[in-house]
Amino acid sequence: MMSPQANHADNNNDAKKLKLEKTGATKPSRVIHIRNIPNEVTEAEIIHLGIPFGRVTNVLVLKGKNQAFLEMADETAASTMVQYFTTCVAQLRGRAVYVQFSNHRELKTDQTHSNANASAQAALQAAQALSGSTPNEVQGGPNTVLRVIVEHMVYPVTLDVLHQLFSRFGKVLKIVTFTKNNSFQALIQYPDVVTAQSAKLSLDGQNIYNSCCTLRIEYSKLSNLNVKYNNDKSRDYTNPGLPTGDAGMEMGSMGALGPLGLGMAGLGAGAAGVLASPFAAMHGLGSPLTGPYGNSAVGAAAAGMPLAGFSLPGAANALGAAGLRLTGQPGGSCVLLVSNLNEEMVTPDALFTLFGVYGDVQRVKILYNKKDSALIQMAEPHQANLAMTHMDKLRMFGKQIRVMPSKHLNVQLPKEGQPDAGLTKDYTTSPLHRFKKPGSKNYQNIYPPSATLHLSNIPPSVSEEEITEAFAKNGFQVKGFKFFPKDRKMALIQLSSMDEAVSALIKMHNYQLSEQNHLRVSFSKSNI
């Protein structure tokens, strides 16, 4: 085996032979010169840029010079590639790279000495096997549709977050999201294979948020997505006039997805994420990804946070604009201090139910000497942040409550014999927690408080009249009601005000509708 120094010397010899080119050649050649490549880029990544345009026959990476040469089988393929990258910025690991014709007619590299050449040859063989497949085998190979699986989904990942993330690489045409085998997945369609490949190469294996929400990306077997509805589950950006009915695509397409066949890579502790925290990216709070880069990586390289090979501009600004502190996210305390409560009406159960919309409440303590204040312990710090984001200054039982982080790390249960009057309750083993399962689907349905409530777990035997009557009996004025057209287990109910909807959620969540069914209530994102 040769030493790294010898290896580097071989590279330098190749570089001398090629007389590093500073300016682009105007005359077409099947050899392509690529400048400004990141130091750690591999031969396989350089080859990946060329695969969509034709067969790649040789590659040379000059890491010390941040340059590479790619030889295509013919000038036509090379011309197509250079022409394409004059209108669209090529990217490697988030950095803009520059593609031009080389002055050389062919790429002659010493294939006997260099270790780098051994890896180059292996990458070339893999690429040639890939591009040499017959048309019938192309499904699952380079394609305009990517299949994205989100692993370790601790925080919610919405369609809009995916759109902002994948739009970094080019125009996203369509997205369909769904849950399969208990994992959140998405199909994302680009206008061309090159953009899809660029996104796959840059994002596969990245974490959306620190140490979680890992993206696993493969090519879909579908070449086109048939999107019927524009809503939070599916979107056709080329056809904004679609109805908002239930998200979906033809079942035939879903059936064609086939088994994953993906190795689940272990998640490195503390692995950097593409976003600093989920809170700015969720529920209309603005996202770190909404930076001024469009389809180009140039802006991305200039500012923002360096993340696993690429950076995002404007992240800190977006978080700041959303009124969110970077410190303590997603670390920090699980305990919230809630003040200005209506002490005549508030109970630990009421706080458990309301705050339970945004996380799993473990303990509640209404302060014995200050009954308009309470400590609420959530299961995880990000749930406490989520609750604080949505409920600070919310009106509850006629008073505007304040929600802020507490200095306490947990809520203490009263010692035996200590006066408490039922003001402290432990909910650790409650069956009503909404987010017990990691990556729970309930994370997809967290919305800010509103006058419209989302009802679920409605048995077929229960009618609209019975539900609205149950709300009326408990003192709530129903302004509207609508079953979901394709799923009668769910409905929307509109109350006269947000204040009343908060009270209705507290009172009617877990309301018994039949022997087996208890009503599930959360805030809705839409009105009736």
From TrEMBL:
GO MF: RNA binding
Cellular component terms (Gene Ontology): nucleus
Biased composition (Basic and acidic residues): 11-24
InterPro entries, sorted: HnRNP-L/PTB, HNRNPL_RRM, Nucleotide-bd_a/b_plait_sf, PTBP1-like_RRM2, RBD_domain_sf, RRM_dom
Coiled-coil intervals: none
Matching Gene3D superfamilies: 3.30.70.330
Region of interest (Disordered), residue spans: 1-24
Entry superkingdom: Eukaryota
Domain RRM: from-to ranges: 30-114, 146-222, 334-408, 451-526
UniProt keyword annotations, A-Z: Acetylation, mRNA processing, mRNA splicing, Phosphoprotein, Repeat, RNA-binding
Biological process, per Gene Ontology: mRNA processing; RNA splicing
Keyword Transcription belongs to the record: no
Family matches, as SMART domains: RRM
NCBIfam families found in the cross-reference section: hnRNP-L_PTB
Name of the protein this chain belongs to: Polypyrimidine tract-binding protein 1 isoform X2
Gene from which this protein is expressed: LOC113204092
